[in-house]
Amino acid sequence: xATDGAPHIAFEQVAFRYDRTSPFVxxxxxxxxxxxDFVALIGQNGAGKTTLAKHINAILKPTxxxxxxxxxxxxxxxxxxxxxxxGYCYQNPDHQIFxxxxxxxxxxxxxxxxxxxxxxxxxxxxxxxxVELTHRRKVHPSMLGRxxxxxxxVASILAMGVSTLVVDEPTTGLDYTGVTRIMDLLASWSRQxxxxxxIITHDIxxxxxxxxxxxxxxxxxxxxxxxxxxxxxxxxPLARAAVRPPQVTRVARALDLLGGGPPxxxxxxxxxxxxxxx
Length: 278
Ligand SMILES: Nc1ncnc2c1ncn2[C@@H]1O[C@H](COP(=O)(O)OP(=O)(O)OP(=O)(O)O)[C@@H](O)[C@H]1O
Ligand SMILES: [Mg+2]
Prior knowledge:
10 strands; 278 residues; 11 helices; binds adenosine-5'-triphosphate; alpha/beta; Rossmann fold
């Protein structure tokens, strides 16, 4: 981890296209993420969120520009070095899960990193405990519910001892309880362990409720990057990115409550604003 105040992750004028003949799918991306940041990446389908995120741990290499992790170009790291630094959970956890038991799935990473059996057990136990799957450790992953599989995917990354998590669509397909569990976990790691967390999501209420900073993407470019309440209240850029502001914010606008006071992106914000008015 960088100790000199340098950003943990930096994108410098990054552009990327999947091959020489296809158009650029991300362009002019400049952004920095500090260790411990909790960030959401939002934007419509095809905006380039997953493509951008895959640059962080060098799954993809910029066509031009640079991506730095702790001051060094991401693709200059050896694969195992990078696996220890940054964990990436794929958009669909089922593309990631391949073992016969929950426990084996979580053990895979720490084993691949060459840890001793004691260390493997310690990290596996800790990760299962963190995602509340200890009681399911002997079960085949296909026996798990959607929310449990999502947590398993996160556990298998955490077990490698990473301090940075990139989680692509952590709440898709989950019911209210599943969403709350995974997001409460991520938020508590962010607070307790200062884990750097980048989530990619279409779930705007989740962003409003949990995430400090939001990066809005459209057509491969960053349109806005700032505190979540400000970004989610920026109607024009959101419209350009085809992202709807939170329902609460739209109601607040209809009631002429926006502007002047604090942003209104969550239900308690709206309740507070209404109480001030009456
Ligand atoms: N492997 C690939 N080869 C070629 N083009 C791709 C590939 N993956 C994505 N693309 C294209 O790159 C663009 C950005 O896609 P990307 O998956 O990064 O968007 P996204 O914002 O993550 O979308 P979603 O919200 O649907 O997951 C799209 O036009 C997509 O069709
Ligand atoms: Mg995506």
